[in-house]
Amino acid sequence: MKNMIEQLFGSKTRFRLLRLFFRQPGQPFFVREISRHLGSQINAVRRELSLLVDLGIIKETAGQSPNFDPGSTLRKYYTLDASSLLYPELQGLLVKVQMLGEQEFVHELTEKGGTVRLMLLTGRFVNKETIPSDLLLVGDLKERNIAKLVAKYEKDLGFEVRYTLMSEKEFKERRHVMDKFLYTLFEAEHHKIVNELGV
């Protein structure tokens, strides 16, 4: 999928740049900040920003970002231009791209993560960052494999995946005592991808 997406957007940096801005549409970013987020060379980021500004997708402004000290000097920062004609089309496309990435991630977890009896996606998978975990896996799990898969997909998904692993015994015990953490996950918006436990 990665090669297809890079070809579609013209470059990996451009794709990841757009994904960053669309995940936080009202957030202003400085060049160095973007470079850190993406793990990309600052010159590559500047080049792609210049192109996206010329296309009217990104706005360049001189000022202070809320991310910086009030006493800092004025600098250029960049925000998504929600009035751009391309905004709704790009937003729809990036949502579909994220869904494809999530499907690949879920497939690999079920194939290589051990015997998964319950898989719940929440938190950043449903754009709710206040939920304390993004992924709950219950079963006879291969922790090392799961850690590798999470690390592999974090860059593709565009965010750090906070995950929780439990044996079936631990899950049932914690559910029986109305564990606050589990209660929070199940009360929040979530998707049950695997549910062999009937919860």
Q: What are the main properties of this structure?
A:
199 residues, two-stranded antiparallel ribbon, Arc Repressor Mutant, subunit A, 18% strand, 8 helices, 2 domains, Beta Polymerase, domain 2, alpha+beta
Individual helix count: 8
CATH class of the largest domain: Alpha Beta
* Poorly predicted regions: none
CATH architecture of the largest domain: 2-Layer Sandwich
Residue-averaged pLDDT: 86
N-end to C-end Cα span: 33 Å
Using only C-alpha atoms, the radius of gyration works out to 20 Å
Shape: elongated
Helix content: 40-55%
Order of helices and strands: HHHHEEHEEHEHHE
Spatial order of strands in the largest sheet: 5-4-3-6
**Overall number of strands:** 6
Largest sheet: 4 strands, mixed
* CATH topology tier name of the largest domain: Beta Polymerase, domain 2
What count of structural domains? 2
Explain this structure.
- It is a single chain.
- By secondary structure, this protein is an alpha+beta fold.
- It has two domains: 2-84, Arc Repressor Mutant, subunit A (Orthogonal Bundle), CATH 1.10.10; 98-195, Beta Polymerase, domain 2 (2-Layer Sandwich).
- Helix content is 50%, strand content 18%.
- The chain contains eight helices and six strands, in the order ααααββαββαβααβ.
- The protein has helices at 2-9, 12-23, 31-38, 42-54, 87-112, 143-157, 168-176, 180-187; strands at residues 58-63, 75-80, 114-121, 135-141, 163-166, 191-195.
- Strands 5-4-3-6 form a four-stranded mixed sheet.
- β4 (135-141), α6 and β5 form a beta-alpha-beta unit.
- The longest helix is centred in the middle third of the chain and has 26 residues, at 87-112.
- It is elongated, with a radius of gyration of 20 Å.
- The model has no long low-confidence stretch (mean pLDDT 86).
